[in-house]
Description:
- 2 copies of one chain form a homodimer.
- Chain A is of the alpha/beta class.
- Helix content of chain A is 34%, strand content 22%.
- Among the domains of chain A are: 14-43 and 85-117 and 271-343, FAD/NAD(P)-binding domain (3-Layer(bba) Sandwich), CATH 3.50.50; 123-268, 3-Layer(bba) Sandwich (FAD/NAD(P)-binding domain).
- Chain A contains 13 helices and 24 strands.
- In chain A, the strands form 8 sheets. A 5-stranded parallel sheet of chain A has the order 5-2-1-9-20, with helices on one face.
- In chain A, a hairpin with a 3-residue loop joins strand 14 and strand 15.
- In chain A, helix 1 (22-30) packs parallel to helix 10 (325-343) and helix 5 (135-153) runs antiparallel to helix 6 (158-165).
- Chain A is globular and about 70 Å long.
- The model of chain A is unreliable at 423-442 (pLDDT under 50).
Amino acid sequence: MKYIAGIPENDKKRVVIIGGGFAGLQLAKSLKNSNFQIVLIDKNNYHQFQPLFYQVATAGLEPSAISFPLRKAFQNQKHIHFRIAALEKVEAESNLILTDIGAIEYDYLVLAIGADTNYFENKNIQQKAIPMKSLSEAINLRNVILSNFEKALNETDKTKVASLLNFVIVGGGPTGTELAGALAEMKKNILPKDYPELDFSKMKVYLLEAAGKVLNGYSEVSSKKGKKYLEKLGVKVLTDTFVKDYDGKKVLLATGETLDTDTLIWAAGVKGNPANGLSTESVGRGGRLMVDAHNLVQNHANVYAIGDIALMKTEKFENGHPQVAQVAIQQASLLAKNLKRKEKGQALKAFKYLDKGSLATIGRNLAVADLPFMSFQGFAAWLLWLFVHLMSILGVKNRLFVFINWTWSYFTYDQSLRLLINPKVDSKQTKLFEDSSVIKNN
Amino acid sequence: MKYIAGIPENDKKRVVIIGGGFAGLQLAKSLKNSNFQIVLIDKNNYHQFQPLFYQVATAGLEPSAISFPLRKAFQNQKHIHFRIAALEKVEAESNLILTDIGAIEYDYLVLAIGADTNYFENKNIQQKAIPMKSLSEAINLRNVILSNFEKALNETDKTKVASLLNFVIVGGGPTGTELAGALAEMKKNILPKDYPELDFSKMKVYLLEAAGKVLNGYSEVSSKKGKKYLEKLGVKVLTDTFVKDYDGKKVLLATGETLDTDTLIWAAGVKGNPANGLSTESVGRGGRLMVDAHNLVQNHANVYAIGDIALMKTEKFENGHPQVAQVAIQQASLLAKNLKRKEKGQALKAFKYLDKGSLATIGRNLAVADLPFMSFQGFAAWLLWLFVHLMSILGVKNRLFVFINWTWSYFTYDQSLRLLINPKVDSKQTKLFEDSSVIKNN
């Protein structure tokens, strides 16, 4: 077995963290000044700011503005070792993980592997629908959206044009809602200027939700206002609407009705990423790993799970906590403390989620805010949303760039990122991928 | 034959422009308020600012900062029709071009198709070396450079590590020189912080040039200072050095000596992009199209060529003008005037190149400037370089972002764009490409 090169064996206990999302990054940062050796592993070399994927997909923000190089977070830190790698298997009985760049032993393993799109076993939808759960997927969605208009220009068949201009989003959670709003605003403010040859009265944005309301889980008034704002922007909101199938051209609803579209965007649910090798009895609802109040995975002695992947059942959260950044960050901070306490032989503290509230923005000046003791909507909620998201973005420069971008778009009603930068699939590009596989085979 | 949809037939004469680079974009803009119908075709939906590709490749600038959506340049202009398409053939006898989205007739055809990397018929080098003649290629180069360090971390064989850390750039023109300088500065200021586990004294940057000096074509003093600056930054400059072959691991020089590197960057020359269907007798040195003083292609009555693709021989420029932005822009501006004059039956004006000078930056505070009546180097040249490039970037917002980026990097000695955003080659990505081919087959 080949071990990951360059990570020294020393007398420090080793914490291996899988995943550099909100949970994994926060944990590594909180352990910066600890006595542990930290190994952080992620498939990418950057942290992604998920809440703003929809703005990348709708050409509002540059991918780099919402991603942050993980190495930069740990510059000059010699006891933190970051590696680009994918987890292949956990061998818990030998305190070992296998990755595509080699194996590594751990004293503590922390799984912060997050969740991915859930297609609920529908193969057709999985193949034909478009997800938005990573930065690459958001860039891909942007390319698909812009390509549709370019294709529509060259199309004379009116049915085909309509199908290209229709966008059907499935899932009325914050992701689907924010994306639908952003698409509707593109239709209103930008697309007619860019494509004077197309008739945008033919463009339709649908938001389909299986439940009886959008923004389920938000306050009653926020959910209602959210729907109202969407409709104000021209989004066709269909609640109690269940999607049965999609063949790349036609969406089949449970009622037997169909919708014609070339673009079905799937934001209907997530499931935990699999951690191969762990006891299957540890896996609960939605593919999440069942953990105790200290985020220790059931049936394991030194394997922890935090963030979206963790399923911690409490009286208040019978099906686990909401899969949002705040939970991930709070669990990570507590786990850092608990690991240190454990080393000192001190008692561990149980996790208690401090819900700071929920926000969702639908469009210009239109957002909803549910705070612990109050709920409000409209311009004030929108300002709060801007402020909270701006402050959460990693890196002063990223924050500055997002701020300028937003201010610019607000006053000009324009966005300037409508670039179809397709990956170049030629010998040179392939070279890179071949090279990557070289790492795997070493 | 299928014609490109949506472009109306009317009594206006139609100018078809192929290529949205400096030449094509300038021509379309200069014809904005003319009585022509304009059809602009490019393979991408954005204009690329070539002079700064090297900063994208070395993680200094964001791709979007140096690209500009072509549609945005012509918003609300109903007589300008932009299409993403690739030229397949010119059928000059029928005043027709064939593209991958259909055919289109023209009254005037303007080829502004530019130049691509010239491998001088060496298949090995073409396959294994890395070019930097488009934005996608610059992004790809950035990915390759960053991947090398990630791979080096997982490598225990010292020879392999050395080969990953060595960068060999071929071509001592401004592109190769600026890239070599930028890589050397990354080595100095950023990489050791990001990769404390690697020994950067082992990293080498080579610049190989077949001629006797770098920055050939610049003044003697600029060329000498350029070399001095490069060496000051630690670049190994080898002049009179001809590369014979490369197998992906070893560069073979004409002397029989070899250099070990995983990364050979090829900036040794360009050749004109082919315009299928034109008289082969019109093609001259370097694959460029031979034109008269009005940029009319030889042996053709209404086909023009401007910019890098045009070969206009004059007393001063026996082998054609330098392939730089200034020539392209000036030829485009004049051609716009000449087309209007021609319609009015007025005499055409002959092209005369006004050389405003040449600049090249090697690093922080280090640049060379050759102006018509003076030549200077160092900090003042560097400031001039910054100013000229900033002012040449299209779009006020792009300009602002580049300015902030440069200022930020200058004071922090840092860049924050070290993101390995790999194109996601999965079913969803493939979907996009399949869809693109649908356009072609229509």
